[in-house]
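Quick look at the format.
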Amino acid sequence: MADLYHLAYISKASLSAKREDIEAALRSMLDAAHRKNPLLGITGALLYSGGYFSQVIEGPLESIEELYETIQLDDRHTECTVLFFEKVAARGFERWDMAFAGIEDEMRFPIEDIKRSQNELAMKETGRQLVTVLAQLVEQHQQALPDR
């Protein structure tokens, strides 16, 4: 069995501020993830927060690297910033090809300060907070969905 990695990143969204444009972009991203991620062994979660995409992706090293390269080339993402990329013992989002954690109007994390400082420890801590917050938001979002 291949080693398991997870990567937490934040990227500035290059979308209009109109809610319907944001929702359409997120639907498109999630649809693509639901189609492609199972083939790559990828799981994770995505949040739109204050003009930024905040995402955690988990899977084999080669798959993570391939997916992150695709994300960096996607014109919906600018200023991609890896908060951390490390080997893990277990997945945090194993139930989801790509869970949706919601849309927030205000940025939850002080990302501009962290990016300016280039403080690796601060970035890693923000990444860990991102994983925790995404897990909580995904659970809340899943509980709010009507039974199918």
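Next, a different chain entirely:
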Amino acid sequence: MRTTLRSTLLGAFAALGLGAAAAAAVTTGQPAPAFSLPGSDGKTHALADYAGKIVVLEWFNRECPFVKKHYESQNMQQLQREYTGRNVVWLTVISSAPGKQGHATASQAAAIAKELGAAPTAVLLDEQGSVGRAYGAKTTPHMYVIGKDGTLLYQGAIDDDPSAQRDGVATAKNYVRRALDETLAGKPVSEPVTTPYGCSVKY
């Protein structure tokens, strides 16, 4: 009976394009999965490199209309600049596989970031999708906030407006901003998990 139920659930996840590994999302309040990835800057970036700092992970696919919404409105760039200016590390992760929508080489990713006026700490290339799967990243954007001690504090949507229209950005409740402000103030994150929205990650 359990085997049948498990098979049914995994089949449902597979139909959604998530796969068995992505179905098992990480748990807030627990240590964030360690990783090391190449960056568009030619350097290798490991989560351990940023111990003692708050870290944001942002899953990115330039061709996704939901990502375009937040970049064309300058919402994402503003968040990146504001919080890196407050000593937060912001890592933009591209998990699109070679040949899939949104995939980028290091030079392409650097050029895209420059064109968009993006201001993350680094753009990371997760071609094998290992980090995306470890975190259960399902959408672009899918957002995570990791505390100074390496604990996952927030995961989910960037805000509460799950449309691809720019009009709602200004009035939407920004979950990432709130999670970061609460964390920087030494308070617990009041809403640690929300439902992510956007395009599926192209593993």
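The two ends are 31 Å apart (CA to CA).

See the schema section for token definitions.
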